[in-house]
Design goal:
The strands form two sheets. The protein has a four-stranded mixed beta sheet. The chain has a two-stranded antiparallel ribbon with strand order 5-6. It is built from 22 helices and six strands. It is flat and about 205 Å long. It starts with 17 loop residues before the first helix and ends in an 11-residue tail after the last strand. It has 1151 residues and is mainly alpha-helical. A hairpin with an 8-residue loop joins β3 and β4.
Length: 1151
Amino acid sequence: MANYSPQHFEPRAKTVNVKGVANRAVATVLTAGLIAQPLMSPLAAIAAPSTDNGDSVQGGGSSVENTVAAGNQAVVKTAAQLAEESAKQLKDAQAAYDAAQKKADAAGQSQKQAQQQKNQASQAVSDNEIEQNAAEVAALQEKIDELKAAVEKAEQQQKKLGDLNDQLDQANKSVEDKTQALKDAKAKQDEAKKALDDAQAKLEAMGMDEYEAAKKAVEDAQAKLDDANKAVATAQANLDQAKAAEASAQQEKKDTEAALTSAQAKKQETAAALAAATTARDNAQQKFNQAQAALDAAVSGTGVDLSALEAAKKAAAGELKTAQAELNAATDADATAQTNLQAAQAAVAAAQEKANAANAAVASAQSAYGAANKEYNAAASKRDAAKSAYEQAQQTEADKKAEYDRLVEVRQQKHSEFDQARAEVTDAHNAYDAANAEVEKLNQQIADLKSNMTVDQNVISQGMFGFMNYIIGGSQFTATQKSNASTAASMLMGTTDKQDWYDNYVDQDMSRDTNPLSLEQMRNALTYLDTQNNLRKANGQSELSVSLRMTAAAALNASYSSNIWDHSNCYFDKGENLAGGGGAYAGGETEDTLGWPYTGLYTQEKEAFDKYVKQYGDALGSHRYDSYYIWQHYNSIYHECGHYLNIIDAGAKAIGIATGSGKNTDSEVTVFDYSGSTGQKDFTVSEFKKLVNDYIDSAYNAGGTQEQKEQLKQLQNKLAEAQKNFGAAGTAYSNALDKQENTRDAYTAADTNMNTAKGEYEKAKSGTAAAKTTYDAAEAKLKGIDVKTPQTKLDAAKSKAATAQAALDKANATLADSKTKAAEAAAHKAKARSAHDAAKAKSEQANEAYDNATASVKDLAAKRDAAQADLANKQGSLDEAKKADDAAQAGVDKAQAADVQAATALLDAKQAVAAKAQAVSDAQAKAKAAEGELATANKAFERFAGAQKAVDDAKAAYDAAVASVADAQKQLEAANEAVVDANLDIFKAKAELANDEALKADLEAVDHKASLAAGTTGNEKLVKLNAAYARYKAAVDAAAGLKAALSDADAKLSDANDAYAAALAELDDAKDALAAAQAEYDKYHPKAEPQAKPQVAQAAAKAPVAKKKAANAALAQTGDNSALAGEVFVIGGITLVAAGVTLSDRRRKQM
């Protein structure tokens, strides 16, 4: 898109304000004059004319400029005048500058606003171009997305439809299976019922009185046995309870025995303690007695046998020495044994440590081997899996390739079939058009012929009503025929059974050819009658007669149904068939040559009904010709197949047929109304056809030549034949269209299947390559895993561990032997120590006896006192032991009493068990006797038992069969519901598919360029796509206005730029003038401080501009943005001002 470019403004000629500028020009001239004539007289200068009125000029004309143009003249004024004038000029310049600044600010603001408006307009145009592009892309993308979605949805719907068809097939198969299962179950039920009846009859034939008596005897014996068995159960329960009590008593006895044993053990302990205390007391008593005797002997002087005591002392000492030697030897042997034991323990510990290390090494090696082996096995498993997957992928690829190749051939075949079907459609369409043209031609010829014939218009205009009146007034008709014709005529005119819709839909203009009440449509209705009866004859049913009342009913109902596509539910008394379309029937009259509407009313519905018969069997099939029964018991089937059932219904006796369209509609229908009353059988079909044709012909016999009548008859015959051909051609064309549609669908499906198979084949090839890569990688990884090295290390570790274990076993054996020897040595040492202790005690006693014998009285008294104290102590211990022994005895006595009591309770429990066991035995005896009585009764009943069992078995079998029938019936009903559901789902899926296909076609038909231009697809159904195109169209429509706005903004900006440039130029002039005035003012209003050189003030300048000096004069220099430069000269008391002027070459800005 176009980018915005700033506009460039060229400098324009500016208007110069004379204020300051004139002075600058004058100053220049004055300066030149002063340089040329430095000695000019002041008076001459004063005398020169001067004008300073502040006017602005464009070129010439002021007195000052005339003076400048005239030559070197001077203006000489007083300093006061110059100061006053400079002040006034400064004020005026400041005012002019302020005004110019305000004007420039206003122009700048206007320029800025114009620039903003231009930018906004330009952005709007740019945005619009972006919006157009985006809208166009969005519209195209929307079409692509919607088309893609429609294609995907249609494909999904196709798949869904295929799945639903599979489900329907499965459901139908299930219905067939369930129907057969129900049939089988009913057969088994019938067999079971017959078996039950036979068994019951056989039982009854055996004599019911004897049967009842024998049966009662068995029942009484059984009751007695039941009572006996209950008594046995009760006795057994009592016995079990008694045994439980015995077990409890037994446990209690065990507990008391354990308590007695414990008390007796305690008594033994206290008795042993008492005996030990008694022995200690006795020993202490003996020592006291000896000490007392020794003391008494010493005091009394009685001597003792010292030699005997000394000999005993020496003998005891010898024994002690021997015992000590044996103890030492045993101690040494024990020490050696302990040393050996410790050494053996150390050896075991060392061997155990080595064994542990070796086992650890084995465990480590085992772990390493296990890990390597696990890794190897895992890799091998993955390799095997990868290999299997690779082989499977190869097989899959081969299968997919074969399937793809097969489907390529199928697609080619289906394409050929589709091409053939299209060719057949073309041929059939041509034939249909030709047949239609022939019918139209003959109709036109007949119409032309009739227009040249004189006919009885009264007969034509009265139509069916006139026909009924003809029968009413004809003497050749029966009273019943006349009565029925009268009823029909009253119905036609609305005088009998008039419905609330009659006036809206029944056309009284019976001359209108398409009116069901017209003679033309009566003639057309005749063409349906023979086929109706031929179909009934093919089903073994009687031919229908024609009912005048049903004929009128059909005409009235056709008037209603052509306006309201439904049954009126009026007039007919048996049933009604309604078909779309009217005119003469053009099909064949047999099942294999039928045309519309019989192909729908009869052929299609017969096929559907036959399928149901396969499902339900004779339960449905046996009522094929009873439509009312089927309506009652198989209502859903009747609603699906009711037209077919009405045609072949055995209860139908007469029929009336009408075709055409009622008032206010062009839609034609054909109505078949059936009557079940024999009183409605007015005419046979052949009679009625002749009657109607003769009546219609009579209308044309009223005028016209014989040649015209013959020609009319021939044309009518040709028309009938042409109509049949037209009907056949229409059927063929319809069939060809169906075939084309089917072959197109088949071709589309084959193409889809081929493409799908191709994709699957390509995917399978990729899968094979990927599987091979995986397999190769797995094989390489497997080969890289080392299992032998860990195995070798494991074997070496196991060998070392075995050696270490052998050493440990040997060390343990040595340790066990050392332990045995150490134990023996310890036992020997203990025995030697005991012998040593005994010898030591004996020696000490002998020494004491000897010492006592040789001791003084004082020593003996002390010994006696010590022995007496020891005796008292031992006596105290004996007393305590006696108390403990007494208490233990009391515990024994108590435990013995409890044990006796437990023994008594156990005895009682055993006796109770014995009694209960006897009761059980007695009850069992009674039960056995009852069993004998039952056996006797059963034997007496034996001849009836088989028959009774047969009845019972037959009853059980019959009940099971009834349940099976009920279950089978439920399953069949469920299966039928599944079929209905499947059909409904298929119907919905087909409708959805049709919608999807229609949407796809609508989208494919969209012309993108044309839709962009129009802002719509022209298809109201494509709402979102229309909105997308409308968005683009709106953007395009808005573009012209936006571009116009941009052009207008551009022009306004140009004007604003010009105005702003002019204002800036004016402002620059005002700035220059202000600077000049300021400089002029400063010359006559000097500051307090002296200045080396006067400076020129620059209006709106930020820094002073340096002056350049010349050799003979000081002039302002020209250049960019330079300001005024001036000098003040005083000559002869008169101040002269010399000023230089420059018009700056201003540079313009880019806007």
